[in-house]
Every structure is written in structure tokens, then in C-alpha cells.
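Q: C-alpha cells for this one, please.
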Amino acid sequence: MIKKHLLTCSVTLVLVLISGLNIFGKIVTQKGAKKTALSPRTSDFIFLKSAEAVAYNFADEALPVNDARVTFKLNKSLRQHDFKSVQSNILHRKAELWFPIIEPILKFYGIPEDFKYVPLVESGLKSGTSSKGASGFWQFMPGTARTYGLRVGHGVDERKNLRKSTIAACKYIKELYDEFNSWTLAAAAYNNGSIKLARAINKQKEDNYFRMKLNRETGSYVYKLIAMKAVIEQPKEHGYDNYFYIPPASQLLAIN
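A: Here is the predicted structure, written as C-alpha cells:
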């Protein structure tokens, strides 16, 4: 009887241990699932991959396909940046001079290389200071520039220094990404400010840039970056095979 009782207790103990391991295993699996789950600010729709989406993306965040509104806005931006509209190869000339300086800085700070197109969109076809006071390659406002370590005032304006302003931009963009957990939203916030974008996200209950309703400038901003990327990487497909003017480097690059 004693042996039988001991055997019964042993079997019961083994079953309890196995049950405990199964429960522990479920807890581990659940914890693992939480780590790999998408952030609530990152919609899986934006990462949709297809033959149409692969060609046009920003920082590997692809445009939604089969969306007439998205297609219309992209095509409009592509037309605005093709050779017929620009009538110059100034964008490619600036890219040739600026990118070798911008790219390693972006890489050092862990910022996707596609952000190198921001200066081309911001100041590629214009120079000087905007009516709102933004200036330089990355079109920083004076206050934002100072926040990220640039000297502005008393005869000094480091917003016009490509290296220094790119370092400042990387710090700013990294903060925006940490807030929104999306590179497209970080780019939109760079244009419109994080406070305004956060309000729009909360009001619309939507964190996919391509499905949000934003002001005209911000709503077209990422499309401009994608179009800029397209004309620089595939110039002939967008009419850039008839270069007739090459601006001197002194007019396009200012590095102090």
C-alpha cells in the first residue's frame, strides 16, 4: 500500500511539474509575442509589398496600393519634379555635391538614407530664408536650430553649414522617430511640427500618413520626398536626359 501510495504521489508530482512548465511556456510565448507585435502607431498597411509598391517607398515604408487618392498624389508630385517642370539639372547637380557629405552623417546617427532627399525638397530649387524665417540646407527655424546645437545670430548662421546642419537634423529626426515610431510620420512632423501632427493623429485616430488628412503642404510632403528620390535615382525615366545647364559648385555648396 505504501509503495502504491508513493507511486501515485510521484505521478501526481510529475503531472503538476509538466503543467507548470506548460503554463510557463505560454507566458514566455506571450512575452515573446508582445516584443514582436506592431506598435499601435505603426500600421501594417504601410508595409504592404507588391510590384507597384516596391518602386515607390520612403525609408522602406511602402505606399499603399490600389488607392486612387494615393496614386493621384504620387503622380502629381512626380510631374512637378520631372524635367519638363524643373527645366534644369540643378537637383542632380546638388545631389552630386551634397550627398557624399550627408550620407555618412545619416548612417552614423542611424537615420535612413532616404532622408538625404529632405534638403533637396526643402532648399533644392530655392535658397535664402523663407518668409517664416527658415533657412539653410535643412530649412531650420532659428529657435529649432539653436535647440539642436547650431549657432544663429551675431553674424553667424550655422544653418548654412551642410555638415553641422545635417548633424542637427539627424538629432531632430531621431527624436521625431522615437515619438511616432514611423519614418514617414517623422518626415511629416519635420515639416509640420510634432505637436500638430500628434493632434492630427489623435483627432483622426489614424497613424498611417498615407491615410491621414493633413494640410496641403504636409499632406504632400512625403510624396515630394518619394518623387525626389525617383528623379534622382531614375533620371532618364523622368526626362532628365537633356542637361543644358550645370551651375558652378560655388553656387550650390557652402561648407564652413
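A few notes: Confidence is low (pLDDT under 50) at residues 2-11, 13-54. The chain has twelve helices and four strands.
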